[in-house]
Design goal:
This protein is globular. It starts with a strand and ends in a 6-residue tail after the last helix. With 336 residues, the protein is of the alpha/beta class. It has a 6-stranded parallel beta sheet with strand order 10-7-6-11-12-13, sandwiched between helices. The longest helix is centred in the last third of the chain and has 18 residues.
Length: 336
């Protein structure tokens, strides 16, 4: 089983896919493995609908899409925030501030809201360092709001531990994911999955992998990639926060089932009813070779997927990569 997680195509401003020279490697690999795929000795899967479409375009090969497993709900029940009691709203943009995550857009939206917010808003930003945009400009943190403004900023200057991250998710009333679509058109977001599973309302960018998930579960508010559109989305959230929260909580029931380790494992081994027609692996499968590359969040998400497999009794062999090994040790998962 090969779980493909990295986008093969690049996207222009109109979100049209294009393939670079490295795509030749992928096309050759698909061609070499195709005889084994046809007799169900090998399976290629991905956790992104858009990435599956990229592979079909590049190699005319259908690849099943499996749900990204979320482990965040397994250890203890979720603690709901206090926003429903009539207090101010707490809006959280998880992860280190970066251009592709739209941290600059949310900061600009906050500046606009300082002028007219009818309810106190606290923006929670994990802004460890300034970051550079594609044009070379440096995006710095400036949160010098006036004393009269009803916008506050809770700035996190250091990396969050798993417990601190979970606490911030639970304390948030709204999860803001103003990601830029060129970077996140096919790329998954584990934060979006966790928000869905926890029943948190999400403000998200159209034409992204996140948008497809929110539409699947009828949750959240869609917006465009600019500060004014973000302001409109936040205003809508403030006007109907109770309704938005109710939709998110209702969606979480189906989201927990879809993004469960059981669904992930069934899709990985070809036992899911939602597959594209590919059959399950021929014979028994009790040994899985798992190759994972990447850094940062990719390591965290890959470790979650490996833990889900190991917890089901599969003997998982991970090929090298010390950061992933350290993350698995943190999760208490023993692998080879």
């Amino acid at each position: 089983v090969l779980l493909i997680r990295n986008s093969i195509a690049t996207y222009d401003e109109e979100l049209q896919p294009g393939f670079q020279v490295t795509a030749i490697f992928w096309k050759l690999m698909f061609w070499c493995y195709s005889p084994l795929i046809r007799v169900n000795k090998v399976r290629f899967v991905t956790d992104s609908d858009q990435l599956s479409e990229e592979i079909a375009l590049l190699a005319r090969l259908q690849v099943d899409v499996v749900p990204h497993p979320s482990l965040i709900f397994q250890d203890r029940p979720v603690t709901q925030s206090s926003g429903r009691s009539g207090k101010g709203l707490r809006i959280f943009l998880p992860g280190p501030a970066r251009f592709e995550k739209g941290a600059d857009l949310l900061l600009e939206a906050g500046k606009i809201l300082e002028e007219h917010a009818g309810r106190t808003i606290t923006f929670v930003l994990q802004w460890e360092n300034d970051f550079e945009g594609p044009d070379g400009s440096i995006h710095s943190l400036d949160v010098s709001a006036s004393a009269q403004a009803r916008v506050e900023y809770d700035i996190i200057r250091a990396p969050l531990s798993s417990e601190e991250y979970r606490a911030q998710l639970e304390a948030a009333d709204i999860i803001a994911l103003p990601y830029r679509s060129q970077a996140y058109f096919a790329r998954i977001s584990g934060v979006a999955v966790e928000a869905l599973v926890l029943g948190k309302p999400v403000i998200y960018t159209r034409h992204t992998w996140i948008a497809r998930q929110m539409e699947r579960f009828d949750s959240g508010i869609a917006t465009e990639e600019n500060p004014l559109a973000l302001v409109e989305a936040i205003d809508l959230a403030m006007e109907d926060f109770e309704g938005l929260s109710h939709r998110a909580e209702s969606a979480s029931v189906d989201a927990r089932n879809y993004f469960s380790t059981e669904s992930f494992l069934a899709g990985l081994l070809g036992e899911s009813e939602e597959g594209n027609g590919n059959e399950a692996l021929a014979g028994s499968c009790d040994l899985l070779y798992f190759l994972a590359v990447g850094e940062g969040g990719l390591v965290h998400y890959a470790a979650n997927q490996i833990k889900a497999l190991a917890d089901k009794g599969l003997d998982v062999v991970v090929l090298g990569y010390k950061p992933l090994e350290r993350q698995l040790n943190t999760l208490g998962t023993k692998i080879r």
